[in-house]
Amino acid sequence: MEIRDFQLRLFGSLDTKRVVNVASVNQYSPFRYPGGKTWLVPFVIQWLISQPKRPMEFIEPFAGGAIIGLTVAIEGLAQHVTLVEIDEQVAAVWKAIIYGDYRWLAERIANFEVTQDNIEVVLSNTYTSIEEKAFQTILRNRVNRGGILAPGAGKIKTGENGKGLKSRWYPQTLRNRILKIGEVRERITFIEGDGLQILEQNATRPDVVYFIDPPYTVAGKKAGTRLYTYFEIDHEKLFAIAKTLQGEFLMTYDNVTAVKEIAEQHGFVMEVISMKNTHNREMTELLIGRSLEWLSG
């Protein structure tokens, strides 16, 4: 009841047609992640508190910046959280925070002087320690346009308020987020691997819930190919696996006809949700599941 009251106090009555004010959502991820799901956090909280009991495990097979999984772990919405990510750059960050010296990483960020020369030294180096690789990834994420880590991404030029490369570098905020995750890391497992395989391996478990947010590349959608290094995914196979899951799942996808057709073929239900992209343009995405009755309160 306390979690439900907390959610209602923060977000009020959720409206799928009204864009969520992301400023009202607690930010836990150190990433600026293309396709990030901060706007969806209130809906996931409502979905989880609608479950008959607190889930034993929450699995996010395409974690990326992991704002959803981190929210679940930090706010205690499931007993344990498993994050899965195949991208080795992103994986380095989660391995450093979950299994490595996260305090070193937090202080490295806090004490780093952002200059063109210092950035070039870090980004051009080949590091062996997971903590240094993690720092390199976070730096690249913060100085590249849109937070894009894929090859060919350009760096910020003018930036926010003319601050250039410093415009997305908030060292104390990043430090505090990493320390916050570190405080609860015993609740989190990280796996560097294929999200589809993890779904298949856990399909028979009724005590697991899944948040599934794959790269959007259905019907020739180009965003995923530009934004992510690992953008290829068998969407038909993903839906087929989702059909076999014994636990509940919530899937989010681009609002396109091809996705709707696949979802309908598997007997899933859909709801269109309003959101804003990183350019502050209002868009819609699909929520997909076996049942979305919880959306009506």
UniProtKB/TrEMBL annotation:
<dbReference type="GO" id="GO:0006298">
    <property type="term" value="P:mismatch repair"/>
</dbReference>
<dbReference type="InterPro" id="IPR029063">
    <property type="entry name" value="SAM-dependent_MTases_sf"/>
</dbReference>
<keyword id="KW-0949">S-adenosyl-L-methionine</keyword>
<dbReference type="GO" id="GO:0032259">
    <property type="term" value="P:methylation"/>
</dbReference>
<keyword id="KW-0489">Methyltransferase</keyword>
<dbReference type="GO" id="GO:0009007">
    <property type="term" value="F:site-specific DNA-methyltransferase (adenine-specific) activity"/>
</dbReference>
<dbReference type="Pfam" id="PF02086">
    <property type="entry name" value="MethyltransfD12"/>
</dbReference>
<dbReference type="GO" id="GO:1904047">
    <property type="term" value="F:S-adenosyl-L-methionine binding"/>
</dbReference>
<dbReference type="GO" id="GO:0043565">
    <property type="term" value="F:sequence-specific DNA binding"/>
</dbReference>
<protein>
    <submittedName>
        <fullName>DNA adenine methylase</fullName>
    </submittedName>
</protein>
<dbReference type="InterPro" id="IPR012327">
    <property type="entry name" value="MeTrfase_D12"/>
</dbReference>
<keyword id="KW-0808">Transferase</keyword>
<dbReference type="GO" id="GO:0009307">
    <property type="term" value="P:DNA restriction-modification system"/>
</dbReference>
